[in-house]
Design goal:
Helix Hairpins, about 100 residues, elongated, mainly alpha
Length: about 100
Amino acid sequence: MENASLFWPLASFAILLFIIGIYALLATRNLLRILIGVEVLNKGVTLLLITAGYITGRTSVIQPVIITMIVIEAVIIAVAAGVVIAAYRKNGTIDVRALRNLKG
């Protein structure tokens, strides 16, 4: 039962990270800040999954899921960073409003 006492502090922190990530996505128009918001949001979800796996005693089940999530997250961020760099080269800014003028 001592594992259960860890759940609420870790879950509260994970939920806080999730909320910070959502706020970063909604409050800014800067593409780099949006990418950072996605990262923070993913880290909150990862922490919540790790906590749930530890509390239930199924760490061997959750570890491959977390590793897969981290790999997919790294690929997505690498591709998104390439898109941000291309947008900066094309428009000279990383403001989302400048991307609305794209055609095609």
